[in-house]
Design a protein that fits this description.
Belongs to the TRAFAC class myosin-kinesin ATPase superfamily. Kinesin family. Keywords: ATP-binding, Motor protein, Nucleotide-binding. One of its GO terms (molecular function) is microtubule binding. This is Kinesin motor domain-containing protein. Pfam families: Kinesin. The radius of gyration is 20 Å and the shape is globular. The protein has a three-stranded antiparallel beta sheet, with no helix packed on it. It has a two-stranded parallel sheet with strand order 1-5. The chain starts with a helix and ends with a helix. Helix 4 crosses helix 6. With 204 residues, it is an alpha+beta fold. It is built from seven helices and nine strands; from the N terminus they run H-E-H-E-E-H-E-E-H-H-H-E-E-E-E-H. The chain has three domains: 59 residues, no CATH class; 59 residues, no CATH class; 47 residues, no CATH class. Bound molecules: adenosine-5'-triphosphate. Adenosine-5'-triphosphate binds next to helix 6.
Length: 204
């Protein structure tokens, strides 16, 4: 996979302004929904807009907006690679320019957060390692941590100990998760993958 599209952005970060890119991904119907002959309530009508095809009456429908616009929307047949390229790549690889970046998924249970984030992380790490390989004149340190926040309790996904971790307010660093495992000796993709596998197994 090439990085030509993001290269310029990586060398010339856009300054200190904050930017938020919001995209929506529609999940395909699962086999249970198909068996029930469910129909998706949502439809992408272009790259930026989804519409709600609800079953309300015409008079009720006028009370609710039916079209919602985002920076990007992805239809149910969009593969992870396309979601990554169009929705997360620029953010994910901006870290090599020293920009603080974050990609996260939000949605109800079974909406596809894990499916999407696993795909995005794999493509992002491939790109980041590719960049590092091609810039041997620079030194990079990659750290990897994984935590789950569930029912307001924080759990370290790289530790066998499932005791909830405490959140501390550090005057300089902001909110800090106490005792979160931080692997800072990631040598290559395979090394990362061993931690990553551990996270995937714990998510089940
Ligand atoms: N875009 C997609 N294409 C194909 N299958 C998908 C897609 N998104 C989600 N799925 C499937 O739907 C199921 C639920 O997805 P996933 O586990 O990612 O949801 P989640 O939002 O992480 O759920 P939870 O909050 O319960 O952990 C999984 O079996 C996943 O493989």
């Amino acid at each position: 996979m090439g990085m030509d599209g993001g290269e310029e952005q990586m060398q010339e970060p856009a300054g200190c302004e904050e930017r938020i890119f919001v995209s929506v991904r529609l999940r395909p119907l699962n086999y249970k929904e198909i068996a029930r002959q469910d129909v998706s309530d949502w439809e992408c009508i272009n790259d930026n807009t989804i519409i709600y095809r609800n079953s309300l009456s015409v008079s009720e429908r006028s009370m609710y907006p039916t079209a919602y616009t985002f920076d990007r929307v992805f239809s149910p047949d969009c593969p992870n690679q396309q979601v990554y390229e169009a929705g997360a790549k620029a953010v994910a690889i901006s870290v090599v320019s020293g920009i603080n970046s974050s990609v996260f998924a939000y949605g109800q249970t079974s909406s596809g957060k894990t499916y999407t984030m696993i795909g995005i992380t794999e493509y992002a790490m491939t790109d980041i390692y590719d960049y590092i390989q091609r810039h041997k004149e620079r030194e990079f340190i990659l750290k990897f941590s994984a935590m789950e926040i569930y029912n307001e309790s924080v759990r370290d996904l790289l530790s066998a100990d499932s005791t909830p971790l405490r959140l501390l307010d550090d005057p300089e660093r902001g909110t800090v998760v106490e005792k979160l495992t931080e692997e800072e000796t990631l040598q290559d993709w395979n090394h990362l993958n061993s931690f990553y596998l551990c996270v995937k197994l714990k998510d089940r």
